[in-house]
Design goal:
Strand content: 5-15%
Largest sheet: 2 strands, antiparallel
Number of helices: 13
Structural class: mainly alpha
Order of helices and strands: HHHHEEHHHHEEHHHHEEH
Helix content: 55-70%
Radius of gyration: 24 Å
Oligomer: single chain
Number of strands: 6
Shape: globular
Strand order of the largest sheet: 1-2
């Protein structure tokens, strides 16, 4: 079952499919883990039962998404040995330890303290429960740290040597981990995860406000999400600009393909191609809509800096332009749409109409999946833009695959598609149903009157919880 494709093409399609299915889960859990830590800290600080109810509402969703992320991540790891054995053999001395550190330092933290976070509030007390929640949030960030270090090293390899059998071997672990593109990718991805979570939380809050405008939990969700949108989106735009300048320095072919520039500009003064259709065979962007000089200002912040085009590189070393030309623009469009919603919400907040603007609530609800779309488009841009290499400039994708028959790879790809859509589709449907429930339905909070004693889950200064608050 080869679908008429080569084994290499099918192996690439399989990895692209599984990583696309996987990346949306950590993009959400990184942000939601930090959000849970903030909610728990606010509950301990203020004693407001709304924060406790929201914590219990979102912790269930986090647990389900975390489980799907673990399963999809394990599947991806196996592909290194099945479909990409040559890559694993050659890059294993560098890649293997980094991925091992991710398991030892990140996954153990997440898995080890997840149970305490989910079920241990009354057993260990509020202080240790808060510590466990914070450790889970830190664990998700550690996971992003190590995985992005691996990916960044494949994009901008450093600190390596070659042994007598052609393997990459570590010479300087500091240079390997903190390779030239790593800091930019780490900041860009973590901010993307926070924005993804913010717009999911904002969409859920907006949904409930449209149906129950006086819901205290929905108001807190929506308000916190819109603060994140207003503050973090500009930071992400700045981080993306810095990331782009770094990419231009280390991967000029990728930038040329993203921008659709087949011709070089030795004297600078590069236009920005807003829209068009790159044609790699004809080496031209058809139906191009350009803005003069703006490309130079964005890419180099200077009108006179030269810029190489795709024609300045050998055809066999160029990435495909059409796909990443458009995925990059979709990602950028999502970013500016997020900024627009954040500013809109800020204005509504100043006018005292944050919760009473139906069109803002509808817009926030529609923007719920925007973070996932931006993350997927960003990863496609990054990974396809690295082609035709698995390790940029050093190891080609065509030389990295296992010697397999196309029929076997095609059969496993088909199995992945069927199983993923059934398992993760069901999980996603369940998560959406959880989100559709009002936060008060997720936890039962007992009334604490003057003659009753608060249980161990409540801080000493907690405000009384009344039935009308539930």
């Amino acid at each position: 079952m080869d679908f008429g494709f080569t084994a290499l093409a099918l192996a690439r399609a399989q990895f692209a499919f599984t990583i696309s299915a996987h990346i949306i889960f950590p993009a959400f859990t990184i942000g939601i883990a930090s959000y849970l830590a903030v909610l728990n800290a606010l509950w301990l600080w203020r004693g407001d039962p709304v924060y406790l109810r929201l914590f219990d509402f979102w912790k269930t969703i986090f647990a389900v998404v975390f489980g799907m992320g673990v399963v999809s991540g394990i599947v991806m790891s196996y592909q290194f040995g099945t479909n990409w054995a040559v890559f694993s053999d050659k890059a294993g001395p560098v890649i293997g330890p980094l991925m091992g550190y991710e398991v030892l330092s990140a996954f153990f933290l997440e898995a080890g303290f997840l149970g305490i976070m989910l079920f241990g509030r009354e057993r260990v007390g509020p202080g240790l429960h808060m510590a466990a929640t914070g450790i889970v949030a830190v664990g998700t960030l550690f996971s992003a740290f190590w995985i992005l270090s691996v990916n960044s090293w494949m994009q901008t390899p450093a600190g390596y040597g070659m042994n007598e059998v052609g393997q990459f071997i570590p010479l300087d672990w500091w240079a390997i981990v903190f390779n030239p593109s790593f800091p930019y990718r780490l900041v860009h991805m973590v901010l993307a995860a926070y924005l993804t979570t913010a717009f999911v939380v904002g969409a859920v809050g907006a949904w409930h406000l449209l149906h129950t405008p006086q819901s205290a939990g929905a108001r807190v969700m929506f308000s916190m999400a819109m603060w994140m949108a207003l503050i973090v989106t500009p930071l992400q735009i700045i981080a993306g600009d810095a990331h782009g300048i770094n990419t231009l320095a280390h991967q000029p072919q990728k930038i040329a393909a993203i921008e659709g520039h087949y011709e070089g500009y030795p004297e600078g003064r590069v236009p920005l191609i807003l829209f068009g259709w790159p044609d790699d065979k004809a080496e031209v962007v058809r139906y191009a809509l350009e803005v003069p000089l703006l490309g130079s200002l964005i890419l180099t912040h200077d009108l006179s800096t030269p810029l190489k085009g795709l024609k300045d590189f050998a055809p066999e070393d160029r990435p495909p332009s059409a796909l990443i030309f458009w995925t990059f623009r979709i990602m950028v469009a999502m970013g500016f749409a997020m900024l627009a919603v954040g500013i809109w919400a800020g204005i509504a907040r100043l006018r005292g109409r944050l919760f009473a603007s139906p069109w803002l609530l509808r817009a926030a609800f529609v923007m719920g999946p925007s973070g996932f779309l931006a993350v997927l488009c960003g990863w496609i841009t990054t990974e396809v833009g690295r082609q035709p290499f698995t390790i940029y400039g050093l190891l080609r994708t065509a030389d990295s695959a296992s010697p397999l028959e196309a029929s076997s790879v095609g059969a496993s790809l088909l199995a992945f598609v069927v199983v993923y859509f059934f398992v993760f589709g069901s999980g996603t449907f369940y998560v959406i149903r959880l989100m559709a429930k009002r936060p008060k339905d997720a936890v039962q909070v007992e009334e604490i009157g003057p003659t009753r004693t608060a249980n161990a889950s409540e801080p000493p200064h907690a405000a009384p919880v009344h039935k009308e608050d539930i």
